[in-house]
């Protein structure tokens, strides 16, 4: 058996100048990428497609408008990518001369809730800021470094303002992203597309079509994908039996769970463990 060793990405490979505090890496598309860490911070912004992000052994579904904060203490990988487009905003906290208030808008390094979805209207402004940031960060001048830091601050404010939660009452929030967020929290419940469409006042047909557009999965397969990801986490970090895990993530039949698990991971739950 070949064991792949985790590697570290170093800032001198990605920043134009040693004094630069911000840089960007556009992946269009992003390939599968093995587990790694880096000596800088990163905001990973998903602009298109789907895939799976595994950070510190915890798998998460990637889809459009998803943001993830990655610190130097984290290790992560990307797999099962499908037409996935990413913009990675890299930054060095020790080099930034930003407002002290900005730290309240970014997760703490030890915080577990380090990813979220952003409303579509806010993402339009995020994408414009990222385009400007990409241009400025490639220049090696004092003015460009100052402009990069100013754009970075605006970017952090925008992704904080647009953050979606299942409890949000903002009518401008993108309904599908709110549904995705709700499913991520309530995946253990038994529900069907009609139940969700009624809860969020959206037609079943529109819901199914939009879920497919955002996640590249059908509604039912998206539910299975979320549940299987949660099961992978429990197989890694708990002593629960496979049967108990199946029940815990929302399956009433452990054999059916095993079939779905193998379909999504190409391994049985016992082999994965």
Short description:
The chain has 273 residues and is an alpha+beta fold.
N-to-C terminal Cα separation, in Å? Answer: 16 Å
Mean pLDDT: 86
Number of helices: 9
Q: So what's the CATH class of the largest domain?
A: Mainly Beta
Can you tell me the overall shape? globular
**Low-confidence residue ranges:** none
| Number of distinct beta strands | 8
CATH superfamily of the largest domain: Regulatory protein AraC
Please, what is the oligomeric state? Answer: single chain
What does the largest sheet look like?
8 strands, mixed
Helix content: 40-55%
Whole-angstrom Rg = 20 Å
What's the CATH topology label of the largest domain?
A: Jelly Rolls
In N-to-C order, the SSE pattern is: EEEEEEEEHHHHHHHHH
**How large a portion of the residues is in β-strands, by DSSP E?**
15-25%
Structural class: alpha+beta
Number of domains: 2
Architecture of the largest domain in CATH? Sandwich
GO molecular function: DNA-binding transcription factor activity; sequence-specific DNA binding
InterPro entries: AraC-bd, Homeodomain-like_sf, HTH-like, HTH_AraC, HTH_AraC-typ_CS, RhaR_RhaS-like_N, RmlC-like_jellyroll, Tscrpt_reg_AraC-type_HTH
Keywords: Activator, Cytoplasm, DNA-binding, Repeat, Rhamnose metabolism, Transcription, Transcription regulation
Protein name: Transcriptional regulator, AraC family
């Amino acid at each position: 058996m070949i064991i792949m060793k985790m590697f570290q990405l170093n800032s001198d490979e990605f920043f134009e100048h040693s004094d630069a505090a911000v840089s960007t890496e556009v992946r269009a598309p992003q390939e599968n990428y093995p587990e790694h860490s880096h000596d800088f911070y990163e905001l990973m912004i998903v602009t298109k497609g789907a895939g799976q992000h595994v950070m510190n052994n915890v798998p998460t579904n990637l889809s459009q408008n998803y943001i993830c904060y990655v610190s130097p203490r984290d290790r992560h990988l990307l797999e099962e990518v499908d037409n996935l487009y990413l913009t990675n905003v890299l930054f060095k906290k020790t080099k930034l001369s930003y407002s002290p208030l900005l730290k309240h808008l970014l997760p703490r390094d030890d915080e577990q809730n380090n990813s979220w979805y952003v409303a579509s209207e806010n993402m339009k402004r995020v994408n414009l800021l990222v385009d400007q940031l990409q241009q400025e960060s490639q220049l090696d001048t004092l003015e460009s470094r100052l402009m990069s830091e100013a754009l970075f601050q605006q970017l952090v404010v925008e992704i904080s303002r647009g953050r979606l939660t299942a409890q949000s009452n903002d009518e401008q929030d993108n309904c599908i992203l709110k549904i995705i967020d709700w499913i991520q929290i309530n995946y253990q419940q038994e529900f069907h597309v009609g139940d969700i469409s009624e809860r969020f006042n959206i037609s079943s047909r529109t819901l199914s079509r939009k879920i497919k557009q955002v996640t590249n999965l059908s509604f039912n397969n998206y539910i299975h994908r979320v549940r299987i990801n949660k099961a992978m986490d429990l197989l890694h970090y708990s002593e629960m039996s496979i049967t108990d895990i199946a029940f815990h993530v929302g399956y009433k039949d452990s054999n059916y769970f095993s079939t779905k698990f193998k379909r999504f991971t190409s391994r049985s739950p016992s082999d994965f463990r």
